[in-house]
Amino acid sequence: MTGPERREQLIAVGRKLFADKGFEATTVEEVAAKANVSKPVVYEHFGGKEGLYAVVVDREIQALMGGISAALEEPEGARVLLERATLALLDYIESDPAGFRILVRDSPPGQSTGSFASVLGDVAVQVEHLLAAEFKQRGLDPKSAPIHAQMLVGMVALTGQWWLDRRKFKKDQVAAHLVNLAWNGLSGLDRSPRLVTVPHR
């Protein structure tokens, strides 16, 4: 194998092990054994397990963000964009469950980037701008867009995690239910929301 071919082989082997066992339970010895190379070859290409994991996670983030960003690029109505973004995440989960499992597992200690949380944060920022414009049109406070963006993204992501292991519903059904709750919830927003259980002051 050439150097680039060997690197790709090690990435594929590492990706499968990280998806099956997680970062902590995967060892350089296992990666080397599955790739039929010595441990120094893994170190030569990635500097260790952390380096290999970082490459794998970065590729998964690019794949997921690419799909979601493309879904949000077209200048369509808010509901259509919500449907597209929801389907983009579910498409990724359906077509690449191993990659999604890698992203949703805990990142190694001390790693502040590359985690699923940072991906969701990036998506929420994109959604926030769309919501702010929509809120302005509807006479709602655009300053509340960030919290609604976090809620929407979190709802879709957690439902996606649930669906990954319990495929009782088809992808389109899951997306339809998510969009139904999100869209109808957004459509009926109070201008000044407050809790009914808390006395007014």
Compact summary:
This is TetR/AcrR family transcriptional regulator. The chain is an all-alpha fold. Helix content is 73%, strand content 0%.
Q: What can you tell me about this protein's structure?
A:
The termini are far apart. This protein has nine helices and no strands. By secondary structure, the chain is mainly α. 73% of the residues lie in helices and 0% in strands. It has helices at residues 3-21, 28-35, 39-46, 49-73, 78-95, 97-104, 116-137, 145-165, 171-187.
Task: Based on the model shown, name its key terms.
201 residues, mainly alpha, 9 helices
> Treating each run of at least 4 consecutive H or I residues as one helix, how many helices?
9
Please bin the fraction of helical residues: over 70%
Order of helices and strands: HHHHHHHHH
End-to-end Cα distance, whole Å, is 73 Å
Strand residues, percent: under 5%
Using the alpha-carbon principal axes, give the shape: elongated
Low-confidence stretches: none
What class do helices, strands and sheet pairing give?
mainly alpha
Rg value: 20 Å
User: What is the average per-residue confidence, as pLDDT, rounded to a whole number?
Assistant: 86
Described by strand count, sense and barrel closure, the largest sheet is:
none
The tally of strands reads 0
Organism: Terrabacter ginsenosidimutans
Protein name: TetR/AcrR family transcriptional regulator
Keywords: DNA-binding
InterPro entries: DNA-bd_HTH_TetR-type_CS, Homeodomain-like_sf, HTH-type_TetR-like_transc_reg, HTH_TetR, Tet_transcr_reg_TetR-rel_C_sf, TetR_C_32
